[in-house]
Structures are given as C-alpha cells and as structure tokens.
Design a protein that fits this description.
Layout (H helix, E strand, L loop, with lengths): L1 H12 L7 E8 L10 E6 L5 E6 L5 E7 L2 E8 L6 E2 L3 E3 L3 E7 L4 H5 L10 E3 L4 E3 L12 H5 L5 E3 L5 E3 L2 E2 L1 E5 L2 E2 L4 H8 L7 E7 L13 E7 L6 E12 L3 E12 L3 E24 L2 E25 L4 E25 L8 E26 L3 E26 L5 E10 L2 E16 L2 E24 L2 E4 L5 E20 L2 E20 L6 E19 L4 E12 L3 H4 L3 E3 L4 E4 L7 E12 L3 E21 L3 E26 L2 E16 L7 E15 L4 E10 L3 E2 L3 E3 L2 E12 L4 E8 L7 E7 L2 E9 L3 E13 L12 H4 L5
Parallel strand pairs: 1-8, 14-17, 34-37
Antiparallel strand pairs: 1-4, 2-3, 2-5, 5-6, 5-7, 9-10, 10-16, 11-12, 12-13, 14-15, 16-17, 18-19, 18-47, 19-20, 20-21, 20-46, 21-22, 22-23, 23-24, 24-25, 24-26, 25-27, 26-27, 27-28, 27-29, 29-30, 30-31, 31-32, 32-35, 33-34, 35-36, 36-37, 37-38, 38-39, 39-40, 40-43, 41-42, 42-45, 43-44, 44-47, ...
Length: about 800
Amino acid sequence: MKSFITLIFSSFFCTVIFSQNDVSGKILDEANVAIPSAVVSLFSEGKTEFIKAAISDDSGSFKIKNLPSGNYVLHVSSLGYADYNSDLFILESSMDLGNINMITDAEALDEVTIQAEKPMVQVMADKTVFNVQNTINAAGDSGFELLRKAPGVIIDNNDNLIVEGKAGVLIYIDDKPSVLRGEDLINYLKTIQASDIESIEIITQPSSKYDAEGNAGIVNIRFKRDKSLGTNGSISSGLTYGDFARYNTSVSFNNRNKKTSLYGSFSNRFGESFGFINLFRTQNNTIFDARTESVYDNLSNNIRLGFDFFASQKSTFGIIVTGNFSDNNSESNSRTPIIPSENASPDEVLIASSITDSKTSNLYANINYKFKSGKKTDFNIDVDYGRYDRDRDNLQPNTYYNGDETEVQSENINFMVTPITIDLFTAKADLEQEFLKGKLGFGVKYSKIVTDNQFDFFDRVNGQDVINEERTNDFNYDEQINAAYVNFNRKLDKFNVQVGLRMENTNSDGILTALQEDQNDRVKRNYTNWFPSGGLTYQVNQKNSLALTYSKRIQRPNYQSLNPFEYKIDELSFSKGNPFLQPQYTDNIKLSHTYNYTLTTSVSYSFVKDYFARITEAVGDDQNFLTTRNVANQKVYNLGVSYPTKFFDWWNIYFSVNAYRSEFEATNADFIPISQNTLSLFAQNTFKLPKGFRAEISGWYSSPSIWGGTYKTKSLGSLNLAVQKRFFDDKLTARLAFNDVLFTSPWQGNTQFGTLSIVGSGGGDSRQVRFNLNYNFGRDEIKKARNRETGLEDEKGRIEN
C-alpha cells in the first residue's frame, strides 16, 4: 500500500511544470473597511472571454490562481456598490493589485433587488456542500432527517451514516466536532430544525487540521448566521403529517453593526411519529417471528445565543451558548410467535410492551478569539464546555401465552432507570502563517469527556419494584485526547501541494461498579497514533485539473460500546458492551479529475483494519445478545461522478453517482465473509415556474448493499417533491413538500453470525406531506434582496475554493 501511494505521488511530481501566475488584491469600501463576498472576475482583453473568478474573504482579500501570461481586465461587483472595472494590465508574473476601493451606489442602497443565490449543491476541491437554505424539500425536517437528503449520504437500520460505502462519520457542528456519540448524538440531531441550518458539508478527505476521528470523513453542519448590517430576523412555522401530525416553529434574530454582532434563535418541535421493525430469527432450529410497532411522542426546544465583538479589522472575540431540552416518550408493542421448527405451529406466543419516558438537557458554551492579518497570518483559539444529562425510565411487561393465545402461561414485568451524565471540555489553538512561499499551519488540542452511566434494574413483584442486584451497575468512563498537528500548503506553478501530520494520544479509563463485587471491572488504555495526510493538485489546463489525496483515520468505540454490563432490550434480547473492543483504522486514497469546474470524476480505495460491527449472538435456546466486536478487515473500491448543470434558464440539476464494491474479510471465526457491489444515485432538480413559483424533484437510490459489516440489504430509495411561492416583496415564503412519495425508504435485509440468522425489515412514517411558512422581518443597512439568480451565477460556479 505504501509503495503504491509513493508511486502515484512520484508520477505526479515527474510531470512537466509550466509557468503559471496569480492575481491578488483586497476589496475595500470608501472608508477602507473590508468588503467580504465580493465577486472578482477576470476577463480577457476587451472582455471577450471570461477566464476565472474568486470571492473576497472576510478581510476583503482575494486571489485568482494558475493564470497564463497575457492581457487581462478585472471586474468587481458587490451588493450596494457600483461595479469596478480595471484598466487593461499585462500579466507576466504573479501580481498584487493592492487595495481596490469600491464606491457606494446610493441608488442600489435604496432598492437592491438582485441577490446571487448559491446553488443547492456545490462540489469543491475538498468537500461537497449541500446548501440547505436553498432547497424547498428541507421544509419541516429535523437535522437527522435532512442528512438523508444530503448527496452521497445513506443512513442504515442502526442510524449509522454511510458515505462512499464506509460507515464511521464524525459529525461537526459549526466547524467543531460533536463529542456526543451513538444514540445520544442521533437523538440530538433529531431535535435540530432544518430551518436553523445553512449548509451541510461532506468532507471525505480531511486534512491534518481536523480530528482524525471518522473512518468515512466528516459531515459538518453549519447553522445560519446573517452577516447583514442592521437588525433583522425570521419567523417560521410548519406542519408535517405522516401517520401522525408533527409541528415545528422557530424564531431567529440578528443585530449587527461594524463593532458588534448579537444573534440568536429559538426553535420548537413536537408531535407523534410511527415506526416498525420485523425480525424473523432462527436460533438452534427454533423460529422467533417478532413484529413490533412503536409510537413516539417527542417535544424538543432549542435555544442559541451568540455575541461577537470586532475589536479591529483583524481581531474578533466571540461567545456562543446553546441549549437543547427534550421530553421524549415512546410505546412499543410486539407479538412474537415461538415456533419449534419450520412449518410447525407455535408452541407459545410472547406479547410484550416497552414504555419509555426520556428527558434530556444539553448545554454548551464556546469562547473564541480570531486574529486574521490579510493572507499572512491566521490565529484562532477555542475553549468549549458542555454538559449533557438524560433521565430515562423503561417499563417492560411481558406475557407468555400458549400457541393459540387462549391461556396465560407466565408473566414478568421489569422496570429500568438509566440516567446518564456527560461532562465535556475542549481547548484548541490553530495558527497559519506564510512560510517558504506557502502556508504553514500548526495547532494543538486537548479534550476531556467524563460520563456517568447508571443502570438500576428492578423486577416488579406483586406491584412492588424489587432491585435486581445481578443486573444493577454504574459505569464511569473518562477519556482524554491530546493532539497536535502540522500542515503545509504551497503552490508550485501548476501544482498545489499539501502535506500534514497529526498526532493523537488517547487515555481512557472505564470503571464498572456493580452491587455484586465479583462483577466489578476496570479497563484502562493509553495509546498514541500518527495520522499522515497529503494532497497534490495539478492544473492541466484552463478546464482540466487532477487531484490526488491520502489520509489515515481512526474510529474509536463510543462509551456505550465499552460498558460490559447487560441492558435489557426486550424479553428475549439484551445489549452489552465489549471492554476489549479495539479502535478501527482506515487508509483512504482518492484520485479525482475536474472538468470545467463542474464535472468531477473520482476513483478511491479504502482499507479498514479491525472493523468493528454490532452483531447478534445466540445465548442458550431462546435469548440473544447485541454486542460490538472487531470481526473483519474491510476493503472499499469506489467510482464517483458528480455534475451540476443548467439545461435551461428555468431548470437546474445536480446529480451524483457512486459505484462501489465493499469486501469484508473475516478476522473472527464466527464471522462469515461477505462482499457486495452497490450503485448509489442522488439527483436534485430545481425549476423556476411562472408567477414566482419554484419546484423541486429530488431523490436517491441505493442498490443492495452491506450495512454494519453484517446486514445485506435490498434496494431502497426515496422520491421527494416540493413547490414554493414567495409573497409580500419576498418576505413571506410558503413551501409544500411531499417526502418519500412512493414509500420506498423502509429497509429489508438479512444477517448471519455463528448459528443465528435474522431476516428483518423496518421503517417509519417516511411518506409525509409538509407545509411550512417563513416570514423575514427587520431592516438592513443594505436592504434584503430578492432570491433570484444574476448574470454572475455562471462565473460563480467556476470560482476557485
């Protein structure tokens, strides 16, 4: 593998290098205040041909790279300012144009009516960006539901995110990794409102600046931040109806001037939803045909408040506080005929219920300092503290009937109290500095997470709850990660080289304290890993570029997977952790080609060592345990194509195709090696209709695939339709959406481990109709603009990132 990587890198460096130049500068207003997001376009002499474009950053700086020598004209445009056109200039070597001062357009300030709208999906050199605020189909979604609609993302039956055939995605919130894992993270994402999210970034090959966690890369969820000057905000309300009704509301505000920015939001979701799961399990020739239906009653409230102080053009201090509070109740009812052999009648039937009451609170605070000096120096400090609390009670009445369900044979009732507390702290510093005609970045990070997981198990006897000492325990987990990285980026004529190295030292201590001392356990670990990363981009010519990237990553077990004690799922199924579970490591390499800044084709290979999977193990004649074990090594070969295009002025489309092969080679005697070829499709169509209407048709499809290393699934997908209309000078937006119109997203699959086999299916009320209203209020120094495209959209689509 190492020699293969070295060979490919060497072949790139041996390519002939041609002389290329850059044009840079700074966009300022009349008072020499930076103008961010200005569109800087470069044209040939006489403006006969568009060449390239860039967007100015927060400091007003821009750079247009890899230009051949020649005669050029520069054009700059920004809302509220008169367009700037340079004189003709001759480019023979890299040139800094210095400060470009824009003149305020008084008429434009009074009635700005055009706003360049971002495309729904942007494919960049290092990531794919799903611009949520521009998709009609996001109306009424939660953050978790929205991820199902993100390009290239599949969610399996255990709510794991899969990207390019690999599970193990690290979730970032506003460029910061979430420390919640597993079920706690999924529950949090289900409380977030899509109306609060600006974009979702899918980063499959992160640099060493990012945490090394996440086999398949990073999904970064960015919340909305209005950078307009003045006071403004929005109010949103919506209704979702599937099998039950759900409601959502949100309010956001922003007050910003040249020295301070105060912003905040409040959102609320409540209502009921439905889910089902059917498991046909064969164990020691006995068949258990379990069919379960569940109703969930959820209420969540989210609050977000932030303040930024712009001490100078270069320095910004910020603080943000977020809170999430939810009250979730559910009731599941199942019927399980127990059949002694195939084609026989049931010996007995288990009728069971599971009634859960769960309350969570999640408080989080961040303090940030940022220093930016043009293109030369970037310095950033973040300090974070958070606390997560969850109180959960679960009542499980179980009744065994005879085969024809006429007589009760036995009955038992269990009650469980399982509170969890998580305290977390992180501190990090990052510095980027010009060095050897390139950018040198380095940083350090410290993170600490402390969890307290209490598990009190009661048997209900004669109406009284009696503690079960064999099943009651307390699990405390303490994890500290110390990290440091260095990253270097430099352009060498037509080449751009990026190399990095990250070190992470992990210290963990898991302590199990049980009422029976012989069950006490403790597992301590201390290990250090090195994670190299690198990238090489070659600009073949004006329309073609090649990129080669490599990264090594890690997936650590979450704390629930390490707790060795048993948790009762239902009468016949238990869950337990594995304190000896090892991390899994992934080597990723990708070669991609981009044509005309739009059509991207890539081939990639990933090798996952010590893949851990959630498996079902048989215990005795009728019970089974869900646990996590290192079972295999995984190989993934992937071919991907993505292309945004405009068929007509009124029809935009983005589509992506991933064809991959996944192979699991057993490292565990009970694991059965499996492999599968899979085709994954994603498409998003946007239509501009008469009288201000817009419509969307979007969907995704996945052919048979492997989930979690053990489940072979059948094909599934989803078709979504939506329509939108704006009123009152674009202040009021009405959206109507239909999700999973054909009801094709429920899953079906089968798995086998040792002597146990399961054929399963499941899903929820994914076929829904949604109606949402959004009203924007307030006033900016530059008036709010209408959401329609401008003549700059084609140029912006080619902008370098």
